[in-house]
Design goal:
The protein has 389 residues and is α+β, with helices and mostly antiparallel strands. Helices cover 38% and strands 29% of the residues. Strand 8 and strand 9 form a beta hairpin.
Length: 389
């Protein structure tokens, strides 16, 4: 058991190097002791440096601590742990003990798992039912414990002492170590903890979600809370600035913006319909029955409406391509009175130009990369159909 882990801010020290294991362009620096935390127990490994060189990984193997670095060291390893990373992850872990311990005690809900994300952390608890009232009660009580500054004691109990608090499956170790928070939590744990609850600063329960095993409860605390709040504040300030509204009125600003977008879309749809109606009128006036055209001023959805409306209302067939940047959408469609099979003709174009799609005898369509030769092929097909019809 690493006794350095009993002191959460022991983040710098000198240790004798007992060996170097070289592997390709990196090496493992071996020491019999270390202040670096090895990942485990739900807590991430420490980050930091040895003699100024970044430690990329740390493992415990064959009785030694192995630190992975890209570089060369010898003699004494001056270890320096990233203090900010240490503080944040230890706060989160100790807060998990407090929250889970209180839930275990008050609601008799077993801890299933706990987890850490970039901007929030959480625990999965074996609740049958959970709601906002329970979540707020847990948050309020846990913050009262933080204000009371209960100590978190690290103890090394005997097997008999540990059996009074923990199940046998958690006692299968040569040396037993427990984290104790008053009468709230007694948990066998080898992780690093804050010395007392005031170092958690504050806890905010964010949300919860139902799982197949219970409920996941998301929370944030300490430095993670401040960091995330800072990021969110910056985002809110920018949103308020862009919306031209005070922060407290951002939702009203978003509601107003949504209505403006809705109104603009209605105007856009009206003009699209006018454009489509005008194009249909122009195409319907042409002498040819089978028409070929490259459309570049319509989106695919409006293009499809143009084609389908034209062949439904007029005895025409379209061999059209909609061109948008480096993509295209091809549509071959006909009036019900015309005899050819649109899907068979589309297949010829699709194979030749690697288009994806399909259809039926009345209408076939698909898309792919735009090639100018597609319109030439469509024009040839339209001409051949005009001669047949």
């Amino acid at each position: 058991m690493n006794k350095h882990y009993d002191h959460w801010l022991e983040c710098e020290g000198d240790f004798e190097i007992v060996g170097i294991e070289q592997e390709e362009d990196f090496c493992w620096v071996l020491t019999s002791d270390s202040i670096f935390y090895v990942e485990g127990g739900g807590m991430a490994k420490d980050t930091g440096t040895i003699n100024g060189i970044e430690v990329e990984d740390i493992r415990f193997k064959d009785g030694y601590y192995a630190h992975k670095i890209h570089g060369s060291v010898s003699g004494i390893a001056h270890m320096k742990v990233d203090v900010d990373q240490r503080i944040e992850k230890v706060q989160i872990h100790s807060a998990s003990h407090l929250i889970c311990g209180y839930i275990n005690k008050k609601y008799h809900a077993r801890t299933i798992a706990f987890f850490t994300h970039e901007d929030s952390s959480g625990c999965e608890m074996e609740f049958e039912e959970f709601n906002e009232d329970i979540m707020h009660e847990i948050e309020k009580t846990c913050n009262q414990y933080v204000l009371s500054d209960l100590p978190i004691q690290i103890v090394y109990p005997t097997l008999e002492e540990a059996r009074q608090h923990a199940p046998e499956e958690k006692l299968e170790h040569d040396e037993l170590r427990a984290a104790v928070i008053g009468d709230i939590d007694y948990n066998m744990c080898g992780c690093i903890h804050v010395p007392s609850l005031r170092y958690l600063q504050s806890i905010k329960l964010l949300s919860y979600e139902k799982t197949t095993r219970g409920y996941k409860i998301y929370f944030i605390c300490g430095e993670q809370l401040l960091r995330t709040l800072g990021k969110q504040q910056t985002i809110l300030e920018q949103c308020a600035k862009d919306l031209g509204t005070p922060q407290n009125d951002i939702y009203l600003g978003i509601t107003r913006l949504r209505q403006e977008i809705k109104d603009l879309k209605a105007i856009e749809t009206e003009w699209k319909n006018k454009v489509v109606a005008q194009k249909i009128k122009e195409f319907a006036a042409k002498e040819e029955v089978c028409l070929s055209e490259c459309i570049e001023d319509l989106d695919v959805k409006t293009f499809q409406m143009l084609c389908s409306t034209l062949v439904r209302e007029h005895e025409k067939a379209v061999f059209f391509v909609c061109h948008d940047a480096d993509r295209c959408h091809v549509m071959i469609a006909r009036h019900a009175s015309l005899p050819f099979k649109a899907n068979e003709l589309f297949k010829e174009i699709a194979v030749k130009f690697s288009l994806r799609g399909g259809g039926n005898p009345a209408v076939a369509q698909g898309g792919g990369s735009y090639q100018p030769e597609i319109l030439e092929e469509l024009a040839k097909l339209a001409d051949s159909m005009n001669h047949i019809i």
